[in-house]
Specification:
The complex is a heterodimer of chains A (333) and B (392). Chain A is an alpha/beta fold. Chain A is 31% helix and 24% strand. Chain A contains 11 helices and 12 strands. Chain B has a domain at 269-392. Helices cover 28% and strands 23% of the residues of chain B. Chain B is built from 11 helices and 14 strands. The termini of chain B are far apart. The chains are: A alpha/beta (333), B alpha/beta (392).
């Protein structure tokens, strides 16, 4: 799906490093991607691949030892990295909202839901408390909290995990942001509750024409919710394309291996494909393509940084050997 | 097929007993209730019970895998912990083959049981002692159970086993923090294996792992089962994983079994509305699928305050008046498939319903053909159709 015009969010060559006692962690190493207005985009990868750091870098909410070394984060044409803290506070919540993985720790346990929402709403939308309460109740109703009018005065512990995640969605959307970053929004939830929450996220995304970055390791969730996918590995984007292309015609060996390792609902009992080796440590990452030590197609050239190749309109892959796909096809991936 | 009658003459337990030849572990009517107390100044008073496991019967056949599925709080982990007696239980009986192991008469009997039944836990970060070497962690069961072995012999066994689970001999002299999550889970598996048990209870063994690591652990478990003839009780909430590893499956809801049977039967033609909803809720990694799904309303109720009648009826799309009055018992709905529902589904086809059909979904191959029409009409109530993916 190619969109015309400027993207809503454009991340260009982003480098984020963490300075730790044991060395410099190159968490993001030249990450580029964009999100268009009204487009749900998936960010996929395994733990430690830089998905969450990307979100934190965009909003500049990195832990203290994390630093953005270089790059641009263009949002509606403005480079957010040039903004000062006060300007960023204006952007956070109002223009870019975020939902976190753990619905328990993202809500203040000693504040009523109303107070937690009203604070934000009245500050950013410039309305008085009563109006803000009304907006809060309306948002809670929209995400399916029963009896929102009375439950808005409850505390977080009085809600279940699924309900709390709904509250977070309501709070994130109360300010009518243009971009929603959802970092593993359903990972902590049960499968039936996950289905409910995803349904709400999808509905809200469509109704408000939100640009959305859905960060997850669950490929099923990505397939059902997004239109475009960026696959992360070792702090870099290794493949980006439309969701359908990534799932049906993946070009990067890592994407292919990742897809093959999911137990399919149809697959009979037997062996799953695995990826040899372990995820690289980013303190001392492999030279060149970061996947090459685990890649079965790696050659000497892979020890140099792979080019990002445009295979098709809107299909990018970072691999030296992507064009040998035909030869690989018959193998057992 | 036996007749389904309102009076339950032929019970699930009788059925299990009749088919018990190959059974390794028999769990019968197991009940584990936690008291809820109200604290006063000088005394505390029991005001109710959390019925975590409320009369569950499961048979685990020798050398096979029984999957146990349910949402958080349904009692699946409690069941496993109770079976290995990390928790005492209120009622029920346990048999390992013909031996009653509901209570141990002597320490020797208990040790004999533990030698044959071992457990692997969910969190590979919390289940290994951070201050002990891997060698000592894996060797500990031998120190307790195999006093006949010499020191060198035990060490040799540990090293051998490390290699069996895909680690190296030199890993024995490292501490748990030096390993990744997947490697730690291998250490946990090695610890469970060292006594050469007959049965391993796996409590969410891959839930904390990334997909590619998960795949390698599932492969390892599969190989070990073939090599040693192990039986598994595989507890998980990921249904694709359970389908992949299990021979039989038991679905649990709020402390009770709702459906039991061979995994292919249950997952392809579920009869209990809860199973149907669970299966339709799985996100499928295929953007071509135009998916119909039943989205359950509400949350799992609190196990302190159970709904009357069928425990699932407040969320059920098929619920009728009788469901809130009479609690359904497990009944045989098809040969080998037991379901605890007043109105079980008949001839329900999951693959058709979620749009997968019988076609093979192969990664990297185009399977855009054959979009199944959603059969949402099968079920009344809250269904919603997923978005159709825009073609490139």
């Amino acid at each position: 799906m190619v969109q015309n015009g400027k993207p809503l969010l454009e991340v260009k060559n982003l480098y984020t490093y963490f300075f730790t006692e044991s060395g410099i962690v190159q968490a993001l190493d030249g990450v580029s991607f964009d999100v268009h207005r009204g487009e749900p985009v998936g960010i996929v990868g395994e733990s430690g691949c830089g998905k969450s750091v990307t979100a934190q870098s965009i909003l500049q909410i990195l832990p203290r030892n994390g630093k953005i070394i270089a790059g641009e984060v263009n949002f509606r044409g403005y480079d957010l990295l040039k903004f000062n803290e006060k300007q960023m506070n204006h952007v956070r919540g109002k223009y870019i909202s975020m939902i976190f993985q753990d619905p328990m720790t993202s809500l203040n346990p000693v504040m009523r839901i109303r107070d937690q929402m009203v604070d934000v709403i009245s500050m950013h939308r410039g309305v008085d408390e009563f109006e803000a309460t009304e907006i809060a109740i309306k948002m809670l109703e929209a995400v399916g909290i029963p009896e929102a009018e009375s439950r808005v005065y409850n505390y977080p512990h009085e809600f279940s995990g699924g309900m709390r995640q709904r509250i977070l969605i309501a709070r994130a959307l109360a300010l009518r942001p243009e971009l929603l970053i959802a970092d593993e929004p359903t990972t902590a939830l049960d499968v039936t509750i996950q289905a409910q929450v995803l349904d709400i996220i999808r509905n809200m995304q469509q109704r408000h024409n939100l640009g959305m970055m859905l960060i997850t390791h669950n490929l099923g969730v990505v397939a059902e919710t997004t239109k475009r996918v960026h696959v992360f590995y070792g702090g870099r984007v290794v493949e980006s394309a439309s969701t359908r292309t990534v799932f049906k015609h993946p070009m990067h060996p890592y994407t292919r291996a990742l897809l093959a390792s999911i137990p399919s609902f149809l697959q009979k009992k037997g062996k799953l494909a695995t990826i040899p080796g372990v995820v690289p440590r980013l303190i001392n990452p492999p030279k060149g393509c970061r996947f090459h030590p685990r890649c079965r197609y790696a050659t000497d050239i892979c020890k140099t940084r792979p080019p990002v190749v445009e295979i098709d309109k809107d299909h990018f892959v970072a691999c030296h050997h992507y064009d040998k796909l035909g030869e690989w096809e018959d193998e057992e991936y | 097929m036996r007749k389904m009658t309102e009076s339950v003459e032929y019970t699930f337990e009788q059925y299990l007993d009749e088919t018990a030849e190959e059974t390794l572990l028999r769990i019968r009517n197991l009940k584990k209730w936690y008291p809820v107390t109200e604290n006063r100044v000088l005394f505390s008073r029991v005001v109710g019970h959390i019925k975590a496991v409320d009369g569950v019967s499961i048979d685990i056949p020798r050398g096979k895998t029984m999957g146990l599925v349910g949402e958080s709080g349904c009692g699946k982990s409690t069941l496993a912990r109770t079976v290995v007696r990390l928790e005492p239980f209120q009622a029920g009986t346990l048999f390992l083959e013909d031996q009653n192991i509901s209570s141990f008469k002597s320490r020797r009997e208990e040790l004999a049981f533990r030698r044959r039944v071992q457990m692997v836990f969910q969190d590979p970060y919390a289940s290994l002692n951070p201050r002990r070497l891997v060698m000592d962690i894996i060797k500990e069961p031998l120190d307790i159970h195999r006093k006949d072995l010499g020191r060198e012999e035990k060490k040799r066994m540990v090293v051998e086993l490390l290699q069996t689970v895909g680690l190296e001999a030199y890993h024995a002299l490292r501490y748990p923090h030096e390993f990744s999550g997947g490697q730690r889970q291998r250490i946990g598996i090695a610890r469970a294996l060292i006594l050469q048990p007959d049965l391993i209870l796996l409590d969410e063994p891959v839930s904390a792992l990334d997909v590619s690591v998960q795949a390698s652990i599932l492969n390892l478990l599969h190989d070990l089962q073939e090599q040693f003839g192990l039986a598994y009780l595989f507890i998980a909430h990921d249904l694709s994983v359970v389908k992949h590893v299990s021979d039989f499956v038991s679905i649990m809801y709020l402390g009770r079994l709702v459906e039991v049977g061979p995994v292919e039967e249950v997952f392809n033609h579920p009869t209990h509305p809860y199973t149907v909803s669970l299966l339709s809720a799985i996100p499928i990694p295929d953007p071509d699928i135009e998916k119909a799904r039943i989205i359950l309303q509400g949350d799992v109720p609190s196990p302190i305050n159970l709904p009357p009648g069928c425990r699932f009826h407040p969320r059920c799309y098929k619920a009728q008046k009788v469901c809130s009055e009479i609690e359904p018992e497990l009944r045989e709905v098809r040969p080998g498939v037991w379901s605890a529902c007043h109105f079980p589904e008949e001839g329900f086809e999951v693959l058709k319903f979620i749009g997968l059909e019988e076609k093979e979904v192969k990664i990297g191959k185009d399977t855009s053909t054959g979009k199944a029409s959603s059969k949402a009409s099968v079920t009344e109530g809250k269904t919603s159709i997923g978005n159709k993916e825009t073609e490139v």
